[in-house]
Each structure stands twice: as structure tokens, then as C-alpha cells.
Design goal:
The chain has two domains: 8-146, ATPase, nucleotide binding domain (Nucleotidyltransferase, domain 5, 2-Layer Sandwich), CATH 3.30.420.40; 165-348, ATPase, nucleotide binding domain (Nucleotidyltransferase, domain 5), CATH 3.30.420.40. The protein contains 15 helices and twelve strands. The two termini are 14 Å apart. The protein has helices spanning 51-61, 68-92, 133-140, 149-154, 164-171, 211-220, 232-236, 241-247, 251-254, 263-266, 268-280, 285-307, 326-335, 355-368, 376-379, and strands spanning 10-16, 22-33, 36-48, 100-119, 122-130, 144-146, 177-183, 186-192, 202-208, 313-319, 341-344, 389-391. Helices cover 39% and strands 25% of the residues. By secondary structure, the chain is of the alpha/beta class. Helix 2 packs parallel to helix 3. The strands form two sheets. Strands 1, 2, 3, 4, 5, 6 and 12 form a seven-stranded mixed beta sheet that branches. A five-stranded mixed beta sheet has the order 9-8-7-10-11, sandwiched between helices. It binds adenosine-5'-triphosphate (ATP) and the ligand CC(=O)N[C@H]1[C@@H]2OC[C@@H](O2)[C@@H](O)[C@@H]1O[C@H](C)C(=O)O. Adenosine-5'-triphosphate is lined by residues 17-19, 21, 182, 184-186, 209-210, 213-214, 227-231, 320-322, 324-325, 356. This is Anhydro-N-acetylmuramic acid kinase. It catalyses: 1,6-anhydro-N-acetyl-beta-muramate + ATP + H2O = N-acetyl-D-muramate 6-phosphate + ADP + H(+). One of its GO terms (biological process) is peptidoglycan turnover.
Amino acid sequence: MLGSRQSSNLVVGLMSGTSLDGVDVAVVEIKDQMDTLDFKLLHFTSLSYSQTIRDKISTICNPKTASIEEISSMNMYLGKLFADASLKAIQEAGLSSKQISLISSHGQTIFHQPEPKMIAGSEVTSTLQIGDIGMIAEKTGIMTIGDFRTRDMAAGGQGAPLVPYTDYKLFRKEEHGRVLVNIGGISNVTILPKGCTETNVLAYDTGPGNMIIDAFTSWATNHTQNYDKNGDIAAKGKVNEDWLSQLLDHPYFQLAAPKSTGRELFGEAFAKRLWQEGERYQMNHTDKITTITALTAKTIAMEINKFIKSANLKEVFISGGGRYNKTLMRFIANYLSLDVSVYGIEEIGMSADAKEAISFAILGYQCYKQRTNNLPAATGANNEVIMGKIAW
Ligand SMILES: Nc1ncnc2c1ncn2[C@@H]1O[C@H](COP(=O)(O)OP(=O)(O)OP(=O)(O)O)[C@@H](O)[C@H]1O
Ligand SMILES: CC(=O)N[C@H]1[C@@H]2OC[C@@H](O2)[C@@H](O)[C@@H]1O[C@H](C)C(=O)O
């Protein structure tokens, strides 16, 4: 039985995020004692998607170009790819499949609609993560858990963000407040006030993370670069303050929490519109990238600044690929009040790259243990639920 022996608590967590860069795989030992959870990262690896796969996923993320046939086949294709990635990681960790209790897979989000649509007089919210868990279980021989977000939505939540549950379990502090920021395709913050309980954690998506920076870099470099490595391009440009303040008027930044977002709002169409706006401002490509980097930084910092006093915030820890963008990190620190210090999340023993995959390992483990694993304060759900479905 899971949990009865130390060796049986080995879990593989899989995360494929909104950047569409690939799948992250964390092999984690989960230490489950009384009501505290802890983990040890045994191995971490990422499998990059080929350009063909990125393009295919991009196509099915866009309702105008998606076809049901492509969605259906990509669901099975990604399931197989996730299975292969899991087996590779298990082998690299020096383990065998038999030692793994479960695989927990977030899946690839291709659609996320937290604002209700009317269908035959009923309000419907929806979210879709693909990468079939039946396929993963079949190809690995390991029980697989996935499809977390729908259950939270069924309980009236946004189905996102889900990682704040593990942020709360692992990183809350009695002495002072902390903020965890993940900068992937989209950015999200988890605010853990001093001595917080589950009910007063604040967590939501702040808006774009690297998504627009990546798109701009690709266009500015004639597709020779997918992202602004280390923020080197942004470091060379100037922020256009006029344009930045206009960009900050976007309605998403004014929305009250709980809120979550994705490619539907800040994807390619949005990036294209901003790129054209930048042209109208007669800005060079470098200044456009610098200004868009400042937009990500400012929308994160503005949210944190709101809670510095009330939550007694002292430390901000940054994870996700954006942690490596030095210009973005510098801008965030500059936009924040001097009361808080900004660190990479490795400062508290967590890997910036593996954090989300580790979190999904923990969320899946909790599901298997039949424990609730959503944080209604973050998602807006009416009640706690056990998120996740199991393929035996
Ligand atoms: N060295 C680096 N310098 C600058 N940016 C980087 C670097 N390494 C990664 N990134 C950025 O991080 C992005 C990937 O981040 P990450 O893997 O955290 O996103 P994700 O998990 O796909 O997204 P999300 O968390 O929104 O689902 C890349 O697209 C790139 O923009
Ligand atoms: C619908 C969806 O896939 N949302 C992702 C996305 O990527 C970042 C942000 O938007 C967050 O809401 C979420 O992922 C993280 C892992 C979460 O649920 O905490």
C-alpha cells in the first residue's frame, strides 16, 4: 500500500505548461507524516517538443484553427509522449517502474474558459487538458492520475491556479509573509500571509508571463530565437512608459480575484496586436521587447505591492522559466517596495524548473489518498474537493 513503506511513496509528476516548450518530469519521494507533507526531488528532466508538435498544439489551442480530429489524435499522441518521458525519467533516476506508486500528469491545456458561457440556458465553464491518462497507464504499467481542473470547476471554481495548494502546504511561515511567483507562459502569484491558514491564502494569475516576450523575440529575430535568453535583448532597450501605462489598462489587470487566464486572452492574437501597436509607436524591436518585459514585471509587482503591509510580506521567491530572465527579475525588484527581498526559489530548496511538476506529483498523491487537494481561496470553488481521475 502507498504510504506504508518509504520506498512506495515514489511518484512521477508531469507538467506541460502554457509555453508549449515541452513536458517537465519530476521523480519525487513524497514523505507523508501525520498531517505534514514533504518531498525530495530524486530526478528532474524536460523533454522538449519538436517544432512540429509545438505547431500542432498551437493549432488546437486556437478555436479558429482547431479540428476535432487533431484534438482527438493529439490527446493520444501526447499520452504516449508523456509515457515515454516518464519511463525515461524513471530509468535516469536509477529506478524501475515497479518502484513507482503512481504517475500524476497535469496534461496539456488546450482550452480554458473560466468565465461562464450560456448553453441552453445554463452557465457553463470549461477547461481541457489533453494527454490521455489511459495511454500513460497502459504504456508505463503504472497507475496514472490526471484531469485535475474539471472537478474544481464543477465545484464552482476557476480550475486554476492549483499549485498554490502545495505552496501553502510547503512554504507558509509563522514569522512573516511570503510570496511565490511562477513565471511560465502565464504568471501567477501565491501570497502566503504571515501565519496564514488555508482560507486566507491569495493566489491568482497576474497575466502574461513569458508568452508575449517569447512571441516578440521570435518575430524580432526572424524566428532564430524562441525566447529572450537571460533577458539579454530586453537589457539593451528602453521602456516606453506611455505605451506601458496604456497596456496596464487592459481589463484583466483590473479584475478582482479569483481570476485565471491563458492563451485565450494573452496568446498569439493578443501578442500580434501589441506588436502592431509597437510599430505605430515607431519603436525598434529591442524597445518593444523591453517594454513587454516591463509589462510582465509590473503586473506581478503591482499585485504583490497591494499586500505587503496587510500580509506582512518580507520575501518573494520566483520560479518558472522567467526566473532566468535577468532583466525581468531586475524589473520586478525595481517595481516592488523596498520592504521585500526577491530571490530565485532555489533559495528555499525548491527547483525553479521542477516546481510545477513536483506540485502535480503531490496533488496526484493526495488524490490517490482520497484527500481534498484544491484550495478554494485560490480557485474560488464553493468547497474543497478531491481533484483528479485515475487510470488503473
Ligand atoms: N535562460 C532563460 N532566459 C530567459 N527566459 C527563459 C530562460 N529559460 C526559460 N525561459 C523562459 O521560460 C519559458 C518556459 O517557462 P516554463 O517552462 O516555466 O513555462 P510553462 O510551465 O510552460 O508555463 P506555465 O507555468 O504558464 O504553464 C520559456 O518559454 C522562456 O520564455
Ligand atoms: C488552465 C491552465 O493550464 N492554467 C495554468 C497556466 O499556467 C500558469 C497559470 O496559467 C496557472 O493558472 C495554471 O498552471 C499552474 C500550474 C497552476 O494551476 O497553478
